Amino acid sequence: MHRDYVQQPRIHQFPLADLKRRAAATAIDFGLAWLISSLGSGLFGGAIFWAWIIFLLAWYLLRVLWVTNNQGQSPGHWALDMKVVQEKSGRLPSWEGLVRREASLGFACSLLIIALNNSASYGVLLFLLTIPIGFDLWIASTDREWGQTMHDRWGKTVIINTTRGYSLDLKIKQWLKEFQARSRS
């Protein structure tokens, strides 16, 4: 007799990070990589091609090499107390898994760089080149169980909350609360 294969449901073993905080952490990493590419491309006369190449290299450094040497945290994830782990084991993803994960997101973000650099001339380009990132976020918003983006699925990873980091989001909330209290007095 043959048994039908029944897929076992995945069990949440880790405190998953919410999509807003994950997007904010990615925005921090994006800003750092964009700053590096802007400064680096200046050495090459500001050519867009070099800005694109330098951005991809900076993305790789921040989102793969940095993560492998910093317990699963990129600068953005560290700032917001999150880290990337393998979805089943909860361990740091392999180098290959991180490269697979970040290649798609890095390419989508590099398209966004091109769009932002040319938005004054070609407004429709800004819309078209942001579609891959929007699609990635939409995938995560429809995944009710794990909240995985497409690049998380390709890398077989999840983003979890951790106690290791700077807690920038909590500090900003506290600063805003203090500012509101002072402005009322």
From TrEMBL:
One of its GO terms (cellular component) is membrane. InterPro entries: RDD. The lineage of its organism: Bacteria, Bacillati, Cyanobacteriota, Cyanophyceae, Oscillatoriophycideae. Pfam families: RDD. Keywords: Membrane, Transmembrane, Transmembrane helix. It is a multi-pass membrane protein. It is found in: Membrane. Residues 17-155 form the RDD domain. The chain crosses the membrane at residues 122-140. This is RDD family protein. It comes from the Bacteria.
